[in-house]
């Protein structure tokens, strides 16, 4: 079978529906996944709200069953629910049809093995791709596997709520922006079981994203939520991404709580519950994260960006929690998988215990001035990083993930995107003035390597 170039990414399968990702390709993914999984047993399949997700998921189920696998059809769910289903149902693996926050013309498939272990390009996705390209499958049994519907919603919400523990929860009045994504399906089930007053925003499931892109990492996409929180004097807001596995908080003043600040809040929360525990944070998190972990008696370990690396490192170090600046949060007691819902529940539990408003709590961790993520298209990413390394040779450098250079009062990281032809830059300093002083030379250097900038 012909496979579109770059359809198989570092962490998943993702491309334009029809042109790159077809029903035939989805069925082939099911067949190859069935052959690849080393453990006999059922495979869970779920899908999001995109117009073609149900059809693609049906094709994946057909491919799995064709190779003799029993399939647990868990239906329309958030991505974090597929990890839960695989773990709770002791399945051999899982497939989730979603393109996360990508525009509506795209779709994709996320794969995992037993215990929700990720299948990325280095851990099996390349094997699956090559089997599809060669039409190389095991002989199909005479009788195909059975497809069995499974409803896991109530079990999932109860599992997520278990992370709040026994601490009393305040009846906050909040707004939740689901971005027409899967949070709109899940949050009403949570609200039935928790003392929250929820003002729903864009809960209608619509994979064409008629209101705004479902990517809360981009500040512009949170404008409606910020306006709602401020206009109605709400306690705070929550924004989910399209497939519901990422979440961002908006404090009562309308300020976005960064992924790094949320990671620090949750790190302190988990260290109260697990004194001395190991907590992971990814390479572009703020310095406040390791400082918070160490100040509260934990062991901080820095990891590469990306869920496959973090999930593997969590098992290696028995980490109780891990956070990424991008809004992904991982939990040991959730099969080391990420969940936007669990992160929100834990953040609300931490806020309840603090007795403060969210802005007061978050301000304790807003110690540094940060640039946010800036993206640059360059013709040769490796050469660009080498030029930066030479230009900043007087700093303390490491190449755990791209290039990080540390100075006493500021630092930066530039790393190649795993999914796009971009270099991503983050800069942080002890003061806004220092940030501006050091940011401009970096931007000018990278813009000089950016063809899009030169042609502008």
Question: How are the elements arranged and paired?
Answer:
Blueprint: E1 13-16, H1 23-36, E2 43-47, H2 53-66, E3 71-76, H3 79-88, E4 93-97, E5 106-113, H4 121-133, E6 147-149, H5 153-161, E7 173-177, H6 183-191, E8 197-201, H7 223-231, E9 236-240, E10 247-250, E11 256-257, H8 259-273, E12 278-282, H9 288-295, E13 299-303, H10 307-317, E14 321-323, E15 329-331, E16 337-338, H11 340-354, H12 358-363, E17 369-370, E18 374-376, H13 381-391, E19 396-398, E20 403-407, E21 410-416, E22 423-429, H14 432-448, H15 451-455
Parallel strand pairs: 2-3, 2-4, 3-6, 7-8, 7-9, 12-13, 12-14
Antiparallel strand pairs: 1-5, 4-5, 9-10, 10-11, 14-15, 15-16, 17-22, 18-22, 19-20, 20-21, 21-22
Helix pairs in contact: 1-2, 1-4, 8-9, 8-11
Overview of this protein structure:
Strands 1-5-4-2-3-6 form a 6-stranded mixed beta sheet, with helices on both faces. Strands 17, 18, 19, 20, 21 and 22 form a 6-stranded antiparallel beta sheet that branches. A 5-stranded mixed beta sheet has the order 8-7-9-10-11, sandwiched between helices. The longest helix is centred in the C-terminal third of the chain and has 17 residues, at 432-448. Helix 1 (23-36) crosses helix 4 (121-133). The chain has helices spanning 23-36, 53-66, 79-88, 121-133, 153-161, 183-191, 223-231, 259-273, 288-295, 307-317, 340-354, 358-363, 381-391, 432-448, 451-455; strands at residues 13-16, 43-47, 71-76, 93-97, 106-113, 147-149, 173-177, 197-201, 236-240, 247-250, 256-257, 278-282, 299-303, 321-323, 329-331, 337-338, 369-370, 374-376, 396-398, 403-407, 410-416, 423-429. By secondary structure, it is α/β, with parallel strands linked by helices. The chain contains 15 helices and 22 strands. A hairpin with a 2-residue loop joins strand 20 and strand 21.
């Amino acid at each position: 079978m012909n496979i579109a170039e770059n359809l198989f990414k570092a962490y998943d399968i993702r491309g334009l529906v029809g042109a790159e990702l077809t029903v035939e390709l989805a069925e082939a993914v099911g067949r190859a996944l069935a052959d690849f999984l080393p453990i006999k047993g059922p495979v869970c399949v779920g899908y999001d709200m995109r117009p073609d997700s149900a059809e693609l998921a049906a094709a994946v189920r057909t491919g799995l069953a064709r190779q003799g696998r029993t399939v647990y059809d868990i239906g329309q769910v958030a991505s974090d629910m597929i990890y839960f289903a695989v773990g709770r149902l002791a399945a051999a693996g899982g497939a989730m049809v979603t393109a996360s926050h990508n525009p509506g013309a795209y779709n994709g498939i996320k794969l995992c093995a037993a215990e929700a272990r990720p299948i990325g390009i280095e851990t099996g996705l390349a094997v699956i791709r090559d089997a599809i390209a060669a039409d190389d499958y095991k002989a199909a049994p005479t009788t195909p596997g059975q497809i069995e519907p499974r409803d896991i919603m109530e079990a999932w919400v109860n599992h997520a709520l278990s992370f709040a523990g026994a601490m009393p929860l305040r009846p906050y009045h909040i707004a939740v922006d689901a971005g027409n994504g899967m949070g709109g399906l899940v949050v009403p089930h949570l609200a039935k079981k928790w003392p929250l007053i929820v003002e729903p925003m864009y809960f209608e499931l619509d994979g064409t994203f008629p209101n705004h892109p479902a990517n809360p990492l981009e500040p512009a996409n949170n404008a409606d939520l910020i306006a709602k929180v401020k206009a109605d004097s709400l306690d705070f807001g929550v924004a989910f991404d399209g497939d519901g596995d990422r979440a961002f908080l908006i404090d009562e003043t309308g300020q976005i709580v960064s992924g790094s600040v949320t990671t620090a809040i949750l790190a302190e929360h988990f260290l109260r519950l697990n004194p001395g525990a190991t907590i992971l944070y990814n390479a572009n998190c703020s310095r406040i994260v390791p400082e918070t972990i160490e100040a509260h008696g934990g062991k901080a370990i820095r990891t590469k960006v990306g869920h496959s690396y973090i999930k593997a490192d969590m098992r290696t170090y028995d980490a109780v929690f891990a956070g990424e600046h991008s809004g992904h949060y991982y939990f040991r007691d959730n099969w080391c998988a990420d969940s936007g819902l669990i992160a929100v529940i834990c953040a609300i539990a931490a806020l309840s215990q603090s007795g403060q408003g969210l802005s007061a709590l978050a301000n304790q961790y807003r110690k540094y001035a940060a640039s946010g993520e800036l993206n640059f298209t360059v013709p040769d990413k490796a050469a660009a990083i080498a030029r930066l390394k030479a230009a900043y040779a007087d700093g303390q450098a490491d190449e755990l993930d791209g290039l990080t250079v540390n100075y006493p009062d500021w630092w930066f990281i530039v790393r190649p995107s795993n999914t796009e032809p971009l270099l991503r830059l983050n800069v942080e300093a002890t003061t806004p003035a220092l940030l501006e002083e050091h940011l401009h030379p970096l931007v000018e250097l990278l813009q000089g390597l950016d063809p899009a900038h030169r042609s502008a």
